[in-house]
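Q: What structure does this chain adopt?
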Amino acid sequence: MNVVRSPRNPLGLVFIFCCSLLLGVSAFSLRHSDPITGGLPAVRRKVSVFAKPETVDRITGILATKFERDAKDIDPECKFLEEFDADNLDEVEVLLSIEEEFDLTIPDYDFAELRTVKAIADYIDRKLEKYTDN
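A:
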């Protein structure tokens, strides 16, 4: 008699339950992974600092409006969430404003990696270049 397949054996039920949990976790991690890397989890990307000044200015304008600051006082190298003492709601509102301004979608897992204005501007410029190349 097979121990695992026996419905009356509590160890068999535990084994089946654990397997179903593992399969559920695997499916969840694949759904919430980076589609560019083919299902592998998103990795921290090295961000270059070749953002266009116009893009930096537009993002700084969004932050200035949101946090009621003067745009010229916002340093593109600052970590704006810490600098402006922003909470999660502020972060989401900034993301939505940026997406609306540039007419593109930034996945949450990518935006979570972008901490400075320059990093966001560089990401947007690279993404817009991909759209224009296609």
